[in-house]
Amino acid sequence: MGIGTSIFLIAVGAILAFAVTTSVSGIEIATVGVILMVVGIIGLLLSVLVLSRARRDTVVTRDRVVERDPYV
To answer: What's the pTM value of the predicted model, to 2 decimals?
Structure first.
């Protein structure tokens, strides 16, 4: 799950939890919204953690070797 998907889940969850007032039999829409927000927050934290670890582990080293002719 990427950062964009996580933010989308948080937004949809917030809309369902706070803005929707309709009721569906057998399903509590506010609870579904809270669950989506929690999943989105966990996904966002994991995405940021994975990206920060990937950037720290990448090290680029360059060695330049210049050979000189000993007979000149």
So the answer is: 0.71
Neighbouring-strand partners of residue 27: 24
To the nearest 10°, the Cα dihedral for 24, 26, 28, 34? -120
pLDDT tens-digit profile of 4-62?
Answer: 999 999 999 999 999 998 888 999 999 999 999 999 999 999 999 988 876 665 667 88
Three-class DSSP labels, 3-47: HHHHHHHHHHHHHHHHHCCCCECCECHHHHHHHHHHHHHHHHHHH
CA distances from 23 to 28, 52, 69 (A): 7, 41, 85
